[in-house]
Amino acid sequence: MMNVAVPNTPEEVLRRWMTSSDQLSVSADGSLMIEGISAAELIKRFGSPLYVMSEGTLRKNFRRIKAAFEANWPAAINVMYAIKANPNPSIRAILHEEGAGGDCFSLGEIQATFLGGADPNKIVVNGSYKPDEVIARAIDLGLTINLDSEEEVDSVEAVARRLGKTVRVGIRIKVLPEDYFKDFSSDCFKRPNFFQGMRRSKWGETAETAKRIIRRLTGHEHLKLFGYHTHIGRASRDPNMFGAIGAELAQIVLNLYQETNFAPSMIDLGGGWARERDPESSGDVRNPHPIEDYAAAVCAPMLRIFRDGQMPLPEIWLEPGRYLVGNAGVFLTTVGLIKRDTELGFTWVNVDSSTNNLLQIDLFGYTYVALSAEGMHRPLRQKVDLVGMTCVPSVFVRDCAMPELKVGEVIAVLDAGMYGEAKGYQFNSLPRPATALVSGKFSWLIRRRETVDDVFSTMVLPERFKQDEPRVS
């Protein structure tokens, strides 16, 4: 086993965990640079705490995943941004410029998708239950709807008939190759029996039910069958998992083709592609597998099965979210108080934010890299717990190697682009942070900071409870 040198400075920590699409560097004076602007300057411009998104990283990530699948699949590739990972319309706009399609789950996600620009022919609507208003909006815009159940067929047909429009539909297949999953253990979801848990999940239909849906669709003049969909999500960093799912799905699709004569125009493989810096693995941040490994693992068996069965090759559609936006985001927060207990031997660095703003830590135990953004050249001299302001532990990073710090200095937490804004909440009535976009030496505010008034803006206090504003005596 190769010995890895222990980092002596935050700059060396960054160098250890850097990936090829990161737009991070260190200036001569030891400042963390996000593209062409220092973290401290961004805090000065936009305030603290602050999400920062790198436009350069977004574009690199999109181009790389698209190229990886194009190199392994002879038909067209549609990379659809899963906007649930980060719903900011400016992020969507950048990815639209790159040619991204999109994956939506609600009216709000459809709206965010089109605020930032979208090609309706490359957008899908997913969900185990889609209210009529979502179905109607999707049909009106000309989006593809992935049917998640046999029960949805009639409801989608009814809305389409009322609107007098035809809609493309896919069928979501529940794909769980038992030989692969019988002894499977997820590095992300801590379920005692992953296979049984996924069998019981609300998503998708079996091959037999899919066959019934195909036959049933022949009696629905407003629904045009377009293809198939599946999605397991970020369950493993092992490319072999995606290979097993791809092979099982391809065999199901081929069998359906042979029995019904329906050749799909597209197969939507969903998302869940693990990134090279991989906080989702709950401890080991480095993933040895690049996206090219995943593309090869999933495409090779599908290509072989379809060609052997003489089925026309469909387009491949993908739904990456975290892969596109994860490392494009950095969360900046400021040291507010440093508490040392020499008797217990602990140091707590309290910052002006909380794990409200990176909720995956509390939900799934994500492990993030944190850096002293203004002391990247200083020696690492202490282990601290980096903690937030709320009345729960709110531990960003436990036993985090840090140099000597001062109150008022900026801390950077990497990989904050995914599920930070999307899942951020206001526990302890803390307003949510602003978001800035950086491109080279330019920066823009793309989400304003909430105020305390914003926190309570949707609450209604009946007149009988209202009191005068408190006065200072």
Protein model, in words:
The chain has helices at residues 10-17, 39-46, 55-70, 89-97, 107-115, 132-141, 152-163, 178-181, 194-200, 207-217, 239-260, 291-308, 322-325, 360-364, 452-455; strands spanning 24-26, 32-34, 37-38, 50-54, 77-82, 101-104, 123-125, 144-147, 167-172, 223-229, 266-268, 315-318, 329-341, 346-351, 370-372, 382-387, 395-402, 410-414, 434-439, 442-447. It is α/β, with parallel strands linked by helices and 473 residues long. The chain folds into two domains: 10-54 and 327-455, Lyase, Ornithine Decarboxylase, Chain A, domain 1, CATH 2.40.37; 127-318, Alpha-Beta Barrel (TIM Barrel). Strands 4, 13, 14, 15, 16, 17, 18, 19 and 20 form a nine-stranded mixed β-sheet that branches.
Structural domain count:
2
Overall, the morphology is globular
**Global mean pLDDT:** 92
Poorly predicted residue ranges: none
Category from helices, strands and their pairing: alpha/beta
Predict the CATH topology of the largest domain.
TIM Barrel
Q: Quaternary arrangement of the chains shown? A: single chain
> Can you count the helices?
15
Radius of gyration (Å): 24 Å
* Terminal CA distance: 69 Å
The residue fraction in helices comes out at: 25-40%
Tell me the fraction of residues in β-strands, as a range: 15-25%
CATH superfamily of the largest domain: Alanine racemase
Number of strand segments: 20
Major sheet attributes: 9 strands, mixed
CATH class of the largest domain: Alpha Beta
Name given to the CATH architecture of the largest domain: Alpha-Beta Barrel
